[in-house]
Write a structure and sequence with these properties.
Length: about 130
């Protein structure tokens, strides 16, 4: 759980630096109210298993010095998904937020998380697309 927290905090810091210094994080299933416009609300994270990379093969770890081995299942891999909610009073402000977000995706395809390494940023829903439609 500490890793999830670290990744979430790093991602939120990036969004606050690059897009909106007042960006806020809310739980994935929480109802929220936007305090001011324009604003960026980060909803999440939601854990989603990467089933395409799941394997049934055994994972074998060898200790040649002790002449032993351990067999077990491979670790499951997960994605952390965030929903980004942008609100604005008029179209110009919304377009500015969307431009900053697109620029952020281009300049930061990888996020460096302290003690964890690099994590790829992947856009699941295209920018400007209504996920509810």
């Amino acid at each position: 759980m500490e890793t999830i927290r670290l990744v979430t905090e790093t991602f939120l810091r990036l969004l606050k630096t690059e897009i909106d210094p007042d960006a806020m994080l809310v739980a994935a299933d929480d109802v929220f109210e936007v305090p001011q416009v324009p604003s960026l609300v980060v909803q999440g994270p939601t854990l989603v298993e990467d089933v395409a990379r799941r394997t049934l093969a055994l994972r074998i770890v060898r200790d040649t010095d002790a002449m032993t081995f351990q067999a077990g299942r491979h670790l499951r891999l997960y994605h952390l998904e965030f929903e980004l909610v942008m609100t604005a009073g008029h179209a110009g402000d919304l377009l500015d937020l969307m431009t900053k977000m697109a620029r952020c995706y281009q300049q930061h395809p990888v996020v460096m998380v302290p003690t964890c390494g690099a994590l790829n940023l992947t856009e699941v829903t295209p920018l400007g697309h209504d996920a509810g439609a």
